[in-house]
UniProtKB/TrEMBL annotation:
Pfam family, one: V-set
Keyword Manganese: no
SMART domains: IG, IGc2
Biological source species: Oryzias latipes (Japanese rice fish)
Keyword Nucleotide-binding: no
Designated name of the protein: Ig-like domain-containing protein
Lineage, highest ranks first: Eukaryota, Metazoa, Chordata, Craniata, Vertebrata
Length: 408
């Protein structure tokens, strides 16, 4: 007993001054992890440094002579996955860099730096995080799980979720089993975007993945407004995710009661996922609601859109020609502006002063006047009136259509 106590006393005398602090490092699987550890800038290069995991075998070691050793579990065909860059020693850092971390790399790491007869010790919890979506490419209406897996799971941490940078509050859809936190949802427009797993353990850590959906991607939502002028051509978009081959595709004008036949003249593309419809010459009667549909994995996907038709109505009042820009749907907050123009002798156009308002009075002899109509998202479209009497360069009605920027 005396001999054992004597030996222990000598060891305590020879190696003293131990310090220990625990740091948390969370990183994603597949990335590089940097585990922090401090050393004396003046002695780091000549000190014995040992990195070990879970109080087990050494994974990296530097002798006082500078020789380095690696644990076999961190050495593969491509070489060692761990390193402690010597260039950082002068700054007092002996951080351990682990490349291409795997889930099994998670655990408690210990950094021990020995200076002569004393040592300093730091401990680092490395937790590997995986945020995933299953199925990875769902279609509209699918059940989907968004999972945040952490190894080792932080028992004292709080885990929450954000959707598109806003707190996700549907607590009845959030579950946890001691290894992971996950959300169960049904794929609708409301759940698309960036899902962020927020882990609060000593500080806040955030890990994000994007939930996208396969199906009809253009237009991205129902009741999309498509604008066109009388006499123009317009494409009603119905584009599925690339690679999909929808079955039983169809188009219909809602309320008419019969499908629209698709043929060479009204199809802009023959790729199986582009089922858009062309109306070659728009008439007033074409305005209204349209629906495209197709079946993917036995799910019937549909998208509706409103075709809004624009025209210019001409009237005469007190000897002046009055032009009124009319849309068949005025449910949106629309602003109008008029751009009058004259042809020069060489056939080029000279533009006059732009005027606001839905009605334009032709107090001068303009050759053509264009009505532009806007919403808060930008230009929706325009329609041009050509004065057949005044202009020797006049031509038929020229129209331009635009989709709302958000719907392209």
């Amino acid at each position: 007993m005396f001999m054992k106590g004597f030996i222990f006393g000598i060891m305590s005398f020879l190696v003293t001054g131990a310090q220990c602090e625990v740091t948390e490092v969370l990183t994603e699987v597949g990335s590089q992890a940097v585990l922090p550890c401090k050393c004396s800038p003046l002695q780091c290069s000549t000190s014995l440094i040992i990195w070990s995991k879970d109080k087990g075998g050494t994974i990296w070691r530097k002798e006082r002579s500078g020789l380095q050793y690696w644990g076999s579990s961190f050495v593969g065909k491509a070489g060692a996955r761990v390193q402690c860059p010597h260039a950082q020693f002068d700054k007092g850092n002996c951080n351990l860099h682990i490349n291409t971390v795997t889930e099994s790399d998670g655990g408690l790491y210990t950094c021990k730096v020995l200076y002569g007869n004393r040592f300093e010790e730091n401990q680092v919890w490395l937790r590997l995080v995986q945020v995933s979506i299953s199925p990875s490419a769902p279609v509209w209406g699918d059940d989907v799980s968004i999972t945040c897996r952490v190894n080792p799971w932080p028992t004292e941490a709080s885990v929450s979720w954000m959707l598109n940078n806003r707190q996700y509050k549907a607590r009845n859809r959030i579950f946890s089993n001691g290894k992971q936190s996950f959300v169960k949802e049904i794929v609708t427009e409301k759940v698309l975007g960036n899902w962020t797993c927020v882990i609060d353990i000593k500080k806040e850590w955030q890990f994000t993945t994007a939930l996208s959906v396969r199906g009809i991607i253009k237009p991205p939502k129902d009741n999309t407004m498509v604008y066109a002028a009388v006499g123009s051509a317009v494409t009603l978009p119905c584009v599925f995710s690339a690679g999909l081959s929808p079955k039983m595709t169809s188009w219909e004008k809602v309320g008419v009661g019969k499908p629209i036949d698709l043929n060479i003249s009204n199809r802009p593309s023959f790729s199986p996922w582009d089922q858009s419809l062309i109306i070659n010459v728009v008439e007033l009667k074409d305005q209204g609601e349209y629906r495209c549909a197709g079946t993917i994995n036995e799910k019937r996907l549909t998208r509706t859109m409103q075709l809004v038709v624009a025209k210019i109505v001409q009237a005469t009042r007190k000897g002046f020609v009055m032009l009124t820009c009319q849309l068949t749907d005025i449910s949106q907050d629309i602003e109008y502006e008029w751009v009058p123009a004259k042809y020069n002798l060489n056939g080029t156009l000279s533009v006059g002063q732009i005027q606001k308002g839905q009605t334009f009075v032709m107090e001068e002899k303009w050759d053509e006047v264009t009505c532009r109509y806007y919403e808060n998202q930008g230009l929706l479209g325009n329609v041009t009136f050509h004065n057949q009497v005044m202009s020797k360069f006049s031509s038929t009605l020229v129209c331009t259509i635009h989709l709302l920027p958000a719907d392209i």
